[in-house]
Specification:
This protein has about 230 residues and is α/β, with parallel strands linked by helices. The protein is built from eight helices and eight strands, in the order αβαβαββαβββααβαα.
Length: about 230
């Protein structure tokens, strides 16, 4: 999965980037050294199994570019013009971008079983009731981290929703890039799966209390995509 994710970045038309892979203790450093030794843009950092939110904070802290774009190891950037679109939309602003994509349901061998379009969207009002932003289709000016602080490590599941709320509260502009073929793979090991429902429910309650959101329905991006496809 990691090899395919990195390859989808290397296929980008826009080439002024660095790929910073944060290894959370699964052997990514050794793998990258073997598979991508010739790629000078690829670097690896050791998160010492501190979890995904600490990993993202570490990645942002070590990043050298002006824009941060996330790509989880089980996702892909399908459009080769995605990074160029991000760069053009943000320019020199303190801003963020979101892109629409696809939820790809896969089996244990990562073979695709079903593909559901995911229409990303956000506004200061709508983000308070639902998160319709794909992490791997989201980018932002790195300076916003210095301005607003790190991602909240007390919210291991909903750190991203918390960040979007904080950006909206600060008046940050979100530029919608439309469909960019961002492919999100939904599988049994994903944190959005049924096996993590109890942790997700606890985190959702913490998020709601932090931002005064009131009761929120426990959903994931697959259920949001299915609702959109059925017109709900």
């Amino acid at each position: 999965m990691l090899a395919e994710a990195v390859a989808s970045v290397l296929r980008q038309d826009f080439d002024d980037y660095e790929i910073l892979v944060v290894d959370d203790g699964v052997g990514a450093a050794e793998f990258l050294a073997e598979w991508f030794a010739a790629e000078r843009a690829v670097r690896c950092a050791d998160n010492r199994e501190a979890g995904q939110v600490r990993a993202r904070n570490l990645g942002v802290a070590l990043a050298q570019g002006g824009i941060v774009a996330f790509l989880d190891d089980d996702d892909r950037w399908g459009s080769p013009s995605y990074l160029a679109a991000v760069d053009a939309a943000i320019g020199g602003e303190q801003a963020a971008t979101l892109a629409s994509g696809e939820i790809v349901i896969v089996d244990d061998q990562m073979s695709a079983l079903e593909t559901i379009p995911f229409p990303a969207s956000t506004s200061p009002e709508s983000i308070r009731s639902d998160n319709k932003i794909l992490v791997s289709g989201f980018a932002f000016s790195r300076g916003l981290s210095a301005r607003l602080g790190p991602f909240d490590e007390t919210l291991p599941i909903y750190w991203d929703w918390d960040w979007y709320l904080r950006l909206h509260t600060a008046g940050v502009a979100f530029h919608d890039l439309g469909p960019q073929q961002v492919k999100i793979h939904a599988h049994r090991g994903a944190t959005s799966g049924a096996g993590h429902s109890a942790l997700r429910a606890d985190n959702l309650a913490l998020l709601a209390a932090k931002h005064g959101l009131g009761p929120l329905a426990l959903r994931n991006h697959e259920s949001i995509a299915r609702d959109a496809a059925s017109g709900r």
